[in-house]
Amino acid sequence: MKKIDSSIQLLQEVLLADYTTWKVGGTARWFIEPKADQMPDLMEWANTQGIKSYFIGRGSNILIDDEGLPGLVIVTCNSLTEICRENNLIVAESGAFLPHVSKFAAKHGFAGFEFLIGIPGTVGGALAMNAGLTVFRPREMVSVVENFDVLNADGSVETLTMQDINVGYRRTDLLNGERFVLRVRFRLEEEEDPAVVRRNTFEHLAERKRKQPLDKPTAGSTFKSVPGGKGAGWYIDQAGLKGLQIGKARVSSVHANWIENLGGATAKDIRQLIAHIQSKVEIQFGIHLSPEVHFLE
Ligand SMILES: Cc1cc2nc3c(=O)[nH]c(=O)nc-3n(C[C@H](O)[C@H](O)[C@H](O)COP(=O)(O)OP(=O)(O)OC[C@H]3O[C@@H](n4cnc5c(N)ncnc54)[C@H](O)[C@@H]3O)c2cc1C
To answer: Which residues of the chain have pLDDT under 50?
Structure first.
């Protein structure tokens, strides 16, 4: 345990596998699940000490090495979870769970947030990834966010819009880890009968349950869709890689773009499987599959 000041205590050597959906990754040198008012001091402390900060929401789109992370790991999903309504906005803290935001919008009689129901991440992680859907009802974070507050390394806070940062398919500037997303404001525009929103939401969830291996530890889609081509899973399937296993990591037989941890998989197993898939698909189709999962290192 390390005290930064009377109100902030850091844990040491916390196992990060417990904070990712893949259940993989070594320990954090320093670790905290902060309250919002502790964040400016934390960022400033790490900055002045020359310690790198790493942000984790629910760890549903990251791969952490078996050696762990040598800096300060800040996890949001248990302590920064408030969601409220302010006029025509939903204001959610960075660690708020996306399905909770989806249900909150439905309860208030607004459509447009159904796509968040099956994405098991936080608001901050989803913003950084520009998370979204290309199937079912296509939509992504950029289309529903009004603005958001970020904390800079020196402890200053700025309010930004999506136009202020570079946004692409499953990526934004925020992935460089220089700014911490404190809270996100979503626009409520599409008024709808809550019963209709709920029905659409549950249909969407049922569709996911049919097509995705939700009973295994995964990080969702491993690779991005191929621009102008097909979904990554199609190429992996056609290359005959469904069911391929390295160590305890396996290409799902339900959805070829998902890699399952069969219990005890290491980051090395997953990295080797990713490299093997990329090489086979490149040889067969001349296409390079880019990872959608973010390597936190
Ligand atoms: C079963 C399953 C289904 C999925 N389905 C989808 C889907 O349909 N669509 C989709 O897009 N994704 C999907 N994903 C991937 C993932 O859930 C999303 O990308 C999600 O938005 C990531 O949120 P997170 O909180 O888990 O982020 P993390 O994985 O914790 O982090 C992702 C990145 O965001 C950064 N980050 C996290 N919090 C902050 C913060 N507060 N400030 C700045 N940076 C931050 C991290 O440092 C990291 O670089 C799925 C994953 C699983 C396991």
So the answer is: none
